[in-house]
Amino acid sequence: MVAINDIAVQQIPTFPLNRWYVAGFSWELKNKPLARVLLGHSVVLFRLDNGHVSALEDRCCHRSLPLSHGTLEAHGLRCGYHGLLFDGSGVCVEIPGQNKIPEKARVSTFHVREVNQIIWMWFGEEKCAEPTHEPPEYAIHDDDRYLFRGDVVHYDAPYQLIHDNLLDLSHLGYVHLQTIGGNAHIHMNAKMQVHSDGEVVRVVRHLPDSDPPPTYVAAYPFTGKVDRWQEIEFHVSHLLIWTGAVAAGTASLSDPDRDGFHMRGFHGITPESETTSHYFWTMATNPASNEEQVLAKVIEQTELTFEEDRVVIEAQYKNLVRFDSPAGVDIHVDVGANRARRLVELLRRNSLSKSN
Ligand code: FES
Ligand SMILES: [Fe+2]
What we know:
The protein is an alpha+beta fold. It folds into 2 domains: 10-123, Rieske Iron-sulfur Protein; 139-355, Naphthalene 1,2-dioxygenase Alpha Subunit, Chain A, domain 1, CATH 3.90.380.10. It has 7 helices and 18 strands. It has a 7-stranded antiparallel β-sheet with strand order 12-18-17-16-15-14-13. The longest helix is centred in the last third of the chain and has 33 residues, at 291-323. The chain is globular and about 75 Å long. The two termini are 18 Å apart.
């Protein structure tokens, strides 16, 4: 007999597999289990007293209560229905009132890694498949020059629409007038370079001699025009976006050590299902003074910005469903997003052809 889960996985081969996706941030795992659906799998994440993070299928092997309803103990997660205790590897280590523990009293586990405060989970073609490589590092989270905060936002929209949005920052001129945008003419006419390198797509845009947008003025003592940059590095499970500005004419925008005001975004885009997504973000900045105040301002503005994006993307998706047709005409700003879409499609099909 084929399990319901197996049918679902075969009928929804929507995501590129054999890679790490973001499952959470370190600070989310405190003294409670955390339930999350990731790539169609119901998962419970928790941290035990030894500091290790575990991820188990969120279903007790006794009578299927989600384990996320249970309680965290020093060495395991106790089911909230009849008290079975599971260790970090999913093995039942205690059945209250019963001495013998059946061999099959265990739940599936997922491979997880915690790197630079990001919790990654491996999704392979086979359930429980061993990872073939380690997840990426993100050194900005441990770089003394930067302060950061982050959060996770739920989207009623497929992950590809969030990719599109992040790869095409021309939308800043229209969507983010009150925060990081404005200057629509400059945004739409910015020279854009797009490069592909294996499973990475890079988009670089320079906006010389611009008016600094509201967020920049609030966070940094700019007094006149600025030269702005936007560097986007797309990976299938996440994007790294470095934006910023220097006073106009004071530095080369191709100098990797340029000073000025920086906003360095980490954007983990993890599908929840075919039509819904988790957006894990952090924003790091380099305050010149008043560190906590500037950070608070940048985070406040970032949250406003991402809310503006969520409203647009969810409305876009509703319309795509309503009209039951794919997006239409391409314009010049779509080059990076289209390239990433083709890459995702290729990797998705590769996963499929190998698993069938
Ligand atoms: S359902 Fe979990 S112990 Fe019974
Ligand atoms: Fe945006």
